[in-house]
Amino acid sequence: MNIAKKIMLGYGVLLIVVFAHLIYSLSILGQMDRINEAISRVDNPIVVKADQLPENLFGQELYASRLAILKDKDSYELLQLKINEFSQLINEMKSVNNPPDSFRELVSKCTAFLLELQSFYGTMASAAALTDEQRNSIAQRQKELIEMARSISGAVRYDQRSKTELSAEIGRMAYRELLVVGVGSVLVAVGITLLFARYISRAVGQLKMSTRMISESRFDEVKFLDSGDEFGEVSKSIAEMAGKIQHLEKLYIATNPLSLLPGGLAIDDTIGTRLEAGIPTAICVIDLDNFKIFNDRYGYAKGNDVIKETAAIITDTVKELGAADDFIGHIGGDDFIVVTAPDKYEPICRAIIKRFDERITSFYDPADREKGVIVAKNRQGAEVVYPLMTVSIAVVSDRNGTIKKLSILSRRAAELKEYAKSMTGSVFVVDQRQYNAEEEL
């Protein structure tokens, strides 16, 4: 999982928490809104109408009593006014949305009572003809309606207080939960940020330490960060780079300053690695014949030129005819080595011999070149004739990848090189011996 996905996962969890909290908050607000809406659209109108009803009924009773005594038109008109108000009040009570059953019953009884009032007090004459028993019945009905209205008003007021307290409690609870979740979300966000910051800091610190170890050549202490993200990929690249730098450093340490070719340590490491991996390998040990005589006659500076030219011949030939992973080394003095595949050594050896023989004569004086020999005195003072330089190559091959010890190939090459140097002219000889397990002992 890369860094972007890790960050998205961390903050995705936080977003889910915040989103869930938002939904919960909206549900709480919706619940409070429904309670307040019920209070404002149902409870308040019921309380108002229930309180207005007794006042109207008391007014009716007052003007009906006055009419019964005075039997005048003014009292009748005032009573009719109250009855009309009563009718309008009933219509308003009917418009209340979703009222309780008790309020519906009150409206129903008020409607029935209105019809009685309209029949009893429809005209001045009908009003004057009412008996005491009818008036007492009307008064009793008014009293029942008043008590019922007051009871409903009290019950609704009590319910209003309960709803108000519930709404307030929900608000307080929502506030506390919002505060806790809000603070928690902030802490989680800070925690995630600190966690990623710490992770990134540690990863960067590990990478810095790895680069410092490489700069100090402490390659064995370079640690691989297995995090599965970009830091892990960079760490893996650094580890691979460390291995290559270590290999190059070994080559540099063992590089011959004259030929600029790697020496003994790199040679052993290269051959050992190939043998350990079971890679079919051919080792070509190259030695110059009569180089010491040339060096004694012409001086070490000319001898160094011959070494450089030989290194150039070998390098160019291997690049041209060898494989990409072939190795060229300078064992020391006039000894070189080529590590190649078994199917590559023959054309390489033939080309090295041909090119060496073509170029080596140019390093001699015309007189020596014309004679084809060097006449020099030995330690006893006697003149000795030495041929011009030639090259001897000993080839030891492990075609089947069965030889695992460098010492076996090295011993065989040394023996074969002595045999090649005993021959006349530039030659290459190949070891034909089969692998024998007893050589491992």
Short description:
The protein has 441 residues and is an alpha+beta fold. The chain contains twelve helices and seven strands. The chain has helices spanning 3-70, 73-94, 101-120, 124-128, 132-215, 230-253, 264-276, 291-298, 300-321, 345-360, 366-371, 406-421; strands at 281-289, 327-332, 335-340, 373-377, 383-387, 390-398, 427-430.
Strand content: 5-15%
Output the CATH topology of the largest domain.
Answer: Four Helix Bundle (Hemerythrin (Met), subunit A)
Shape, please?
A: rod-shaped
- The ordered string of helix (H) and strand (E) elements is HHHHHHHEHHEEHHEEEHE
Number of domains: 2
By CATH reckoning, the class of the largest domain would read Mainly Alpha
Straight-line N-to-C gap: 52 Å
CATH architecture of the largest domain: Up-down Bundle
Main sheet overview: 5 strands, mixed
Q: What proportion of the residues is helical, as a percent range?
A: 55-70%
Radius of gyration: 58 Å
Order of adjacent strands in the largest pleated sheet? 2-3-1-6-7
* Total beta strand runs: 7
The average pLDDT is 85
Low-confidence stretches: none
The tally of helices reads 12
Structural class: alpha+beta
